[in-house]
């Protein structure tokens, strides 16, 4: 079973306490770094402009081939080893981004739901862009006009929501920094706050893993090492090491590689026995228990054409767009299953393959586990080109939702569905103890 992660959201006396799901409280990372100088936040609309400037990307789709050709000339700026790169501190990559929903009402429509709440899918897009920009700040080369690195999102390790409402009429602030580095990868911690009265209150904590590639995005590239300046930073870095180990352990016990545990096998067998028709003596005669739904009946699917408008700075489809589309389908699936849902946690989103512009994006969402008020939704992403029609998996998304009322149990029919059930149960159990849903907790698609 996956261990609950240590969260900056519960930082107390310089130590991190375990927590997942709707976390209790958060602390601005400025206090962790003892930052005294004043930071001027970047407007959210300027984040992607800065990224285009850093890599020399064009805003005109017709110029993308020329822009990529120019990046080939940056190979000479790539380090031959990590030892040749100057070390950086966590403060060097620290960024604040401002989303003025309250002070600039013209921004609201992009983020607004019909229930007058904030679209969480749009927040995922902003987090993805911010994570990439933070990594470019960590690896900034002052002697080069453009960065020779191609930094992309490899994994959304986890996003945990705090117990605060999210209003479309109050300003929002994001902050983040690099918290761990390997040779070619970086972990990024990001936090989101919303203005309540005169103070910014915590909304979510996020951990992303980014990888550095060469200027043509064809092979790995070295990143700057990280200097730790305080016990708090050492704790954050150590947590990054633990996160890496946890991911390796979780992958090694994947149900795609290993058989279920004895306890899990017992769970599946008991569920199978509970669906046998007591009127017949047959393994083929199946009936649903009361207040239950067959897993196969909890699916929703969607299809999108990946237009150039949704491209990233490297002319592949923007990872934030993929997350938004997957989240919105997952939310609709949970809503269709158990009433109006609220996002509690996002975890273990692996970006396995880039999505090319012009691809067909197939998304399939399914409720794979439920318990009490909780709904675990798995969204599977495939792409196919218009030429060869071959389908390839690009992502698997895991979302934990909570309903205001108790939801039906979900029962698998086949062995494959049973494995989906156990995988959903494992992701659900990666949270800490269940929490009480606050009525003002209103983060929606």
UniProtKB/TrEMBL annotation:
Membrane spanning stretches: none
PROSITE patterns the record matches: HOTDOG_ACOT
InterPro entries the UniProt entry points to: HOTDOG_ACOT, HotDog_dom_sf
GO BP, one annotated term: acyl-CoA metabolic process
Limits of the HotDog ACOT-type domain: 93-216, 296-407
UniProtKB keywords: Hydrolase, Mitochondrion, Repeat, Serine esterase, Transit peptide
GO molecular function list: carboxylic ester hydrolase activity; fatty acyl-CoA hydrolase activity
Presence of the UniProt keyword Cytoplasm in the record: no
UniProt entry tagged with the keyword ATP-binding: no
GO CC, any one term: mitochondrion
Subcellular location(s) per record: Mitochondrion
Family recorded in the similarity comment: Belongs to the acyl coenzyme A hydrolase family.
Protein name per Swiss-Prot or TrEMBL: Acyl-CoA thioesterase 9
């Amino acid at each position: 079973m996956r261990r609950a992660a240590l969260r900056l959201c519960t930082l107390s006396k310089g130590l991190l306490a375990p927590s997942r799901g709707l976390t209790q409280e958060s602390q601005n990372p400025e206090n962790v770094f003892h930052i005294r100088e004043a930071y001027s936040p970047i407007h959210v609309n300027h984040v992607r402009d800065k990224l285009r400037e850093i890599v020399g990307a064009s805003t005109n789709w017709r110029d993308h081939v020329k822009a990529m050709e120019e990046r080939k000339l940056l190979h000479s700026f790539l380090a031959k080893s990590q030892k040749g790169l100057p070390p950086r501190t966590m403060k060097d990559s620290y960024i604040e981004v401002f989303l003025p929903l309250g002070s600039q009402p013209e921004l609201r429509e992009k983020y607004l739901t019909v229930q007058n709440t904030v679209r969480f899918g749009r927040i995922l897009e902003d987090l993805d862009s911010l994570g990439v920009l933070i990594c470019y700040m960590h690896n900034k080369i002052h002697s080069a006009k453009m960065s020779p690195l191609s930094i992309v999102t490899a994994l959304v390790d986890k996003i945990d929501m705090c117990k605060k409402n999210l209003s479309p009429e109050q300003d929002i602030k994001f902050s983040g920094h690099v918290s761990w580095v390997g040779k070619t990868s970086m972990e990024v911690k990001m936090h989101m706050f919303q203005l309540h009265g005169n103070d910014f209150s915590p909304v979510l904590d996020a951990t992303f893993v980014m990888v550095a590639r060469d200027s043509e995005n064809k092979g790995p590239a070295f990143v700057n090492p990280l200097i730790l300046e305080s016990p708090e930073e050492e704790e954050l870095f150590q947590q990054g090491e633990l996160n890496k180990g946890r991911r390796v352990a979780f992958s090694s016990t994947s149900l795609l590689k290993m058989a279920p545990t004895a306890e899990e096998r017992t769970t599946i067998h008991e569920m199978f026995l509970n669906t046998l028709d007591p009127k017949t003596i047959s393994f083929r005669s199946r009936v649903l228990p009361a207040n239950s739904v067959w897993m196969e009946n909890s699916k929703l699917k969607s299809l999108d054409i990946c237009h150039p408008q949704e491209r990233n700075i490297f002319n592949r489809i923007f990872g934030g767009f993929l997350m938004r589309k997957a989240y919105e389908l997952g939310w609709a699936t949970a809503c269709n299953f158990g009433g109006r849902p609220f996002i509690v946690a996002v975890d273990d989103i692996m970006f396995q393959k880039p999505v090319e512009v012009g691809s067909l994006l197939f998304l399939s969402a399914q409720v794979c586990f439920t318990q009490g008020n909780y709904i675990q939704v798995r969204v599977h992403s495939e792409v196919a080109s218009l030429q060869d029609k071959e389908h390839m998996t690009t992502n698997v998304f895991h979302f934990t939702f909570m309903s205001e009322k108790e939801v039906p149990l979900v029962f698998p029919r086949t062995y494959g569905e049973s494995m989906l059930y156990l995988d959903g149960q494992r992701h659900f159990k990666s949270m800490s103890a269940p929490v009480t849903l606050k009525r003002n907790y209103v983060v929606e698609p």
